[in-house]
Amino acid sequence: MLEEYSNIVQLVERLHRHFLDVLRTELRRVGNEEINAVQALLLFNIGEDDVVIRDLRDRGYYHGSNVSYNIKKLTEMGYLSQERSPHDRRATRLQLTDRGFEIRRVVAELQSVLVERLGRNGVTVEMLRGGSKALEQIERTWTDYVRYGRD
Description:
The chain has helices at residues 2-29, 37-46, 53-58, 64-76, 98-120, 125-148; strands spanning 51-52, 80-84, 92-96. With 151 residues, the protein is mainly α. It starts with a helix and ends with a helix.
C-alpha cells in the first residue's frame, strides 16, 4: 500500500502542474497572454456568484499571500471587481467582470473538451468516482494529521 500511496502523491503533484500547462496552452490558443494559468483557475473557481476572499482560503484552494497577490493583479487588469461587504466591512466581496466571465467560459469549455477526450479514451464515470473517493480519503487523512497530529 505504501508504494501505491506514494505513486498517488507524486501523481497528484504532477497532475496539478500539468493541468496548469494545459490551461497556459489554452490561454495562448485564445490569444490571452495577459494572465497566467493560476489566475485563470482562480477566476473559474470564483464562479458565477460573489465570493469573499476568506471563503477561497477556507475552501482550501489558495494560501493567503498567493490569493491576495493574484486578486490584486486580476482587479488591476479588469478581470475582477471588489467591494466591501455591507454586513461585515472587514470582508471584501469579489465578482467577475465581463472579462473575468470570458476567461471562466474559456476554462469551462476546456473542461468539457477534456472530459469528452477522457470518455473517448475509455475513462468511465465509475472510474472517476473511485479516484475521487480515494483522493478525498487521502485529503481527510492529511487534514486530520494537520489538525490532530500523529496520534
